[in-house]
TrEMBL record:
Native source species: Arthrobacter crystallopoietes BAB-32
Signal peptide segment: 1-24
Keyword Signal: yes
GO cellular component: outer membrane-bounded periplasmic space
Pfam families: Peripla_BP_4
Keywords, comma-separated and alphabetical: Signal, Sugar transport, Transport
Any GO molecular function: carbohydrate binding
Name the UniProt record assigns to this protein: ABC-type sugar transport system
Main location: other
Compartment list: Cell envelope
UniProt domain Periplasmic binding protein: residue ranges: 53-297
InterPro entries named among the record's database cross-references: Bact_Solute-Bind_Prot2, Peripla_BP_I, SBP_2_dom
Length: 332
């Protein structure tokens, strides 16, 4: 219990900066009544309208990114921002989207750094053009060198170590950590963190854009690996597919996860998934857009050169019911 609470305290402390930004910088200026439809309340800023491109490595069908986008859209509504959301899981094409935004003359870019080397040239083009950049979700150890002035996300190695510690404390010895996108630095760091605490952790790569392949690959692995006692999914849709694979294989392995959606939260409540590690993606989207607005309106740079952590926090059966309501609203 004390271990779990310590991670909650870490996450709560880490998100204080974006929370304060919301309360301190909302404007009482006028707006059209309909401007707040679907938002979180409060008046729209009376600052000059600005344009922001949010460019992620989201793969089709991954519901995690719906939550990130919802946070970004709410910040945009509050901050009088015109938001353009773009995504591509392939690093080269994500770089092209960044260059496209630069050519359009946007006022700010928020970008995920899952494959930072592929984005370096495009991000230099942005910073050379005087466009402020923030990063989110992936790349907490590379954001500064790539020109972003702050980063919103979880420390993925730390999150993986938290999972490893939790599994070790509960007696698990032979995890399988399933990576759905090879070369994604955040996912690799998660599994590396688990392995640092449970040395017999095995890494299994699957093709995350093909859930049929994910299910068949995990099923075959479990059928060939009788010693596996827990399988770790690195995203809610993949974990739900892994649950099916465990059933297909007739395995006694338990299932753990990273990230959250409403269906996964319900599986934790029901005891089908032992826990997940929530990085609070809504805050990542919200914080990234709000930070760009803060930078334009006053030259503010949140984070003091350090990443703003939105996690990790472990959600297990004891705490999942508390977050299920928010997950159903699409904000967890």
């Amino acid at each position: 219990m004390s271990h779990k609470l310590s991670w909650r305290k870490l996450a709560a402390a880490a998100v204080m900066v974006p929370a304060l930004a919301l309360t301190a910088c909302s404007s009482s200026g006028g707006r059209a009544p309909e401007a707040n439809d679907g938002g979180g309340g409060g008046a729209v800023a009376d600052t000059e309208r600005m344009s922001v491109a949010l460019i992620t490595h989201a793969a089709p069908g991954d519901t995690f990114w719906d939550i990130v986008r919802k946070g970004a859209e709410e910040a945009s509504a509050k901050d009088n921002v015109e938001l353009q959301y773009l995504s591509d899981p392939e690093g080269g094409r994500q770089a092209q989207l960044i260059e496209q935004a630069v050519d359009q003359g946007v006022d700010g870019i928020a970008v995920t750094l899952a494959k930072p080397d592929a984005l370096a040239s495009a991000l230099k083009k942005a910073t050379d053009a005087g466009i402020p950049v923030v990063s989110l979700n992936a790349g907490e150890d590379r954001f500064s060198e790539l020109g972003a002035f702050t980063h919103f996300g979880s420390n993925e190695k730390l999150a993986g170590e938290a999972v490893g510690e939790r599994l070790a404390s509960e007696g698990y010895e032979h995890p399988i950590c399933v990576i759905q996108e090879q070369g994604h630095v955040g996912l690799e760091n998660r599994c590396a963190g688990v392995k640092a605490k449970v040395p017999d952790t095995e890494i299994l790569y699957v093709q995350g854009t093909d859930m049929t392949q994910v299910e068949s690959t995990v099923t075959a692995k479990l059928q060939a690996t009788a010693a596996a006692d827990v399988v770790i999914g690195l995203g809610a849709p993949f974990t739900l597919t892994i649950l099916k694979a465990v059933g297909n294989a007739g395995s006694d392995a338990k299932v753990a996860s990273f990230d959250m959606n409403a269906e996964l939260a319900q599986k934790i409540v029901d005891g089908d998934v032992i826990f997940t590690v929530d990085q609070q993606p809504w805050l990542q989207g919200y914080g990234a857009v709000d930070a760009l607005w803060q930078n334009q309106r006053g030259g503010f740079e949140i984070g003091g050169g350090q990443p703003v952590l939105t996690g990790p926090t472990i959600v297990d059966q004891e705490s999942a019911q508390q977050v299920l309501e928010f997950a159903e609203q699409g904000v967890r």
